User: Fold this.
Amino acid sequence: MPRPLSLTIRAIAYELRGGFLLRPFLIALAFGAVGAVLSSLEEHVPALSAWVPTFLFPSRNDPQAAQLILSAIATSIMTVVSIVFAILLMTLTLASTQFSPRILVSFVRDRATQWTLGVLLGTFTYCIAVLPAARSLPAAFVPVVSVTGAMLLALVSVAWLIFFIHHISQAISVNHIVDRIARDTEGVIDELMPHPASAVEPTQQRPMPDGDGAPILSQRSGYIRYIDTARLMELGKAWRIRIRVARGVGQFVPAGVPLVHVTRENRVTPVRAAELLSAFDIGPTRTLQQDVEFGVIQIVDIALRAISPAVNDPSTAISCIDQLSSILILWCNRAPPPPVLFDSPHVPRVEIPWIDLEGLLNTAFDQIRHYAAGDLAVSLRLLRAIGDVAGTTQRPDVHAALLGRARTLVDRAAESLLASDAVRLRERLATLEARLGA
Assistant:
């Protein structure tokens, strides 16, 4: 059973939007179309060439001069494109080695880079599209306006190249990298959890205990990247069954392992089972379509590498902790995605194990706390981040989870730090406990 068209389109759009293919290709195609249309229009309306000042293009009766200009621009632009690709390759290699290979996703999704490639390739296609119009036979014709446009595009390409070099020099900065990942992750939270925490009532209990329901096995191995919840709900209502998803977004599911469990097994034929599986987008890598944890993992990876003995860069780790606190503040103040979807009149149909606050806190803080136990600055910043998150919400469950981690952090760090440093940590912990009324 093929995937639904909507899910297929979403997956393709995400992949194309996140690479160097779609946007540069569309820009290059648009520039080429403009060159072809403009040169053709100029041939049928010769008066257009009078709009171009003579000093911009004095050789109005020499087709060879026009051909030479267009050929030189096209050749030079392709040389520049090779330089841009070399810079990109060097940047991606450096970022992958120094920070984490998982952050390459944010680099290839960078719009400034995509636009740079698009403008350069567009200038090339423009020149190629205009070049056939400049001819000596059967009648000499010089597309003055089109050639002038090519020269202006060449100047724009040079300016854009300078901008690109400046942009790359900033983009390789760890602060920009972490900030970009954090903004992308917050965008996922906005899409997945659009409602404020106080606007949605607490969810009811899970309708299907673990082990209940007939399993439907996954037909391929990979990470769950997207779950079409609306499609699962539609199928559950149509077949009058309950569906429990065994693994959540971001988790790896091997082929042959149960992916969903359903009640009333006799209603689920092999064709219907395949239709259920088609509601899942499973691939070789995790993405930021619905996977908030993946964005947090990228930032944590950078922090862990920064506090490793080989790098010893606590300032980078502190920057990562600051961005993690921003993500967690947004998460704690949003209503979590409902783990159970109900059918009228309040009949549970679909259960999905989204990551909860406890899991996200574990991902965000536990590894950094463990490896930064001997670093006072990082430990203090962790405590401050916990206090910042706790101070933005009145939820008792959030306060309890954060206080537990703060106490574990102080106890673990006190074993590795000097007594005077441990006192500073305990003082900050006492301040946090007093503020939260613990």
